[in-house]
């Protein structure tokens, strides 16, 4: 697995833990625009 720079300027997919909504953004949205749930960077593995 390659390392991903979390500070990169390229667009990254983020997924909501609560409702599953996926958005593409350059910066972490923090909260889901639909349900206000926490968002995760999909390029970072879950552990």
TrEMBL record:
Superkingdom classification of source: Archaea
Q: Which SUPFAM superfamilies match?
A: Rubredoxin-like
The record, for InterPro entries, names: DUF7129 (IPR055553)
One Pfam family, short name please?
DUF7129
Q: Which residues form the DUF7129 domain?
A: 4-46
**What name does UniProt use for this protein?**
Rubrerythrin-like domain-containing protein
Which source organism? Halovenus rubra
């Amino acid at each position: 697995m390659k390392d991903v720079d979390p500070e990169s300027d390229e667009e990254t997919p983020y997924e909501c833990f609560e409702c599953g909504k996926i958005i593409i953004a350059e910066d972490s949205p923090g909260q889901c625009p639909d349900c206000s749930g926490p968002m995760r960077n999909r390029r970072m593995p879950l552990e």
